[in-house]
Amino acid sequence: MFETLKAQAPDKILSLMAQYKEDPRSTKIDLGVGVYKDASGLTPVMRAVKSAEHALWEAQDSKSYVGLTGDPAFSDAMVKLVLGDAVPRNTVAAAATPGGTGAVRQAFEMIRMANPKARVFVSDPTWPNHVSIVQYLGIEMVPYRYFDSETRSVSFDAMIADLKTATKNDVILLHGCCHNPTGANLTMDQWAEVIKVLQETGATPMVDIAYQGFGDGLDADAEATRAVAAAVPECLIAASCSKNFGVYRERTGILMVVAADTGAFALNQGTLAFLNRQNFSFPPDHGARVVTMILTDDALRADWQAELEDVRLGMLELRKQLAGELKRLSNSDRFDFLAEHRGMFSRLGTTPEMVEKLRVDHGIYMVGDSRMNIAGLNANTIPVLARAIIDAGI
Ligand code: LMR
């Protein structure tokens, strides 16, 4: 029967990973998949994660099932981390999911269940897997303008104009911080405008926050998500621990559903449990447990925050160095946007042909839309990349 299947196009980000691996050049530079790397190219296990895993190994006496929505202590810790005190805890239904992708998938499923005609507005561009999952689920997608490829900043007026066309039957997907793939983010004043549009249209916001702590700091990165949640009756939040805890392969994420009042909580919580059961039953526990241990222990938490802050500042420094080197070589400020962007990514703003040329000629791997993972750079590769960009005439 399977001969009826049609070959699926490979995921562009993940196939780039494989291509990079196969490239024999020792000078190759990986700016592809969104994984943090230190100066030596390693994606380290964070210190607090190692300590928590060690303690867990000592203390854990069962691997029996936990619960369909995961350990409630994980939900409590994550709701606090992401939402702070923005909304009453008893209005937030939450379920652990396999990574941030699992949370995104469950959110879309919940939307479709609630209203099969709901449209999902996504930024143009957005993380390709948003588009892929929305389409896979047969949900209508409406792109909204987001990125100005001239200034490499947010095309704010166009964004607002497009968002105003949403209705109360629609969902608007927003990146809570560190926009993927562009690196261009809204100011808090601009978020206030977006919130006004959400209130005027009655559209339901869905916030994807996968990089909290990678932009301007743990609380600063959550500020917009908190403001949105506090300002509207209902919202969905998909959060990931993959990057800020470095637990990529453990698949640790959470979907939160904020309700207008405590009345809807039970229905939302029950729906999340049902959806988990249909798709995978129990969510992975190991990463979630480690994250909970870190967030609820003062010493582990302090160590985690310190290491995360080092990671964040390290990426900011790389941004500054790259922008500085390009300023020097180009004798212009047209690459200053690299220092303005936040998070792991920046969209360079060049053609797929140019991206391909950088790969073929220099072994520089970035996603076809010219998204670069800034964490893939180090002091030695910055001059190489800058020179290649200038020589290519970008
Ligand atoms: C990315 O955007 O590179 C990451 O979120 C990894 C992924 O799953 O695509």
From TrEMBL:
<dbReference type="InterPro" id="IPR015424">
    <property type="entry name" value="PyrdxlP-dep_Trfase"/>
</dbReference>
<keyword id="KW-0663">Pyridoxal phosphate</keyword>
<dbReference type="InterPro" id="IPR004839">
    <property type="entry name" value="Aminotransferase_I/II_large"/>
</dbReference>
<dbReference type="InterPro" id="IPR015421">
    <property type="entry name" value="PyrdxlP-dep_Trfase_major"/>
</dbReference>
<comment type="subunit">
    <text>Homodimer.</text>
</comment>
<protein>
    <submittedName>
        <fullName>Aspartate/tyrosine/aromatic aminotransferase</fullName>
    </submittedName>
</protein>
<feature type="domain" description="Aminotransferase class I/classII large">
    <location>
        <begin position="27"/>
        <end position="389"/>
    </location>
</feature>
<dbReference type="InterPro" id="IPR000796">
    <property type="entry name" value="Asp_trans"/>
</dbReference>
<dbReference type="InterPro" id="IPR015422">
    <property type="entry name" value="PyrdxlP-dep_Trfase_small"/>
</dbReference>
<keyword id="KW-0808">Transferase</keyword>
<dbReference type="GO" id="GO:0008483">
    <property type="term" value="F:transaminase activity"/>
</dbReference>
<dbReference type="Pfam" id="PF00155">
    <property type="entry name" value="Aminotran_1_2"/>
</dbReference>
<comment type="similarity">
    <text>Belongs to the class-I pyridoxal-phosphate-dependent aminotransferase family.</text>
</comment>
<keyword id="KW-0032">Aminotransferase</keyword>
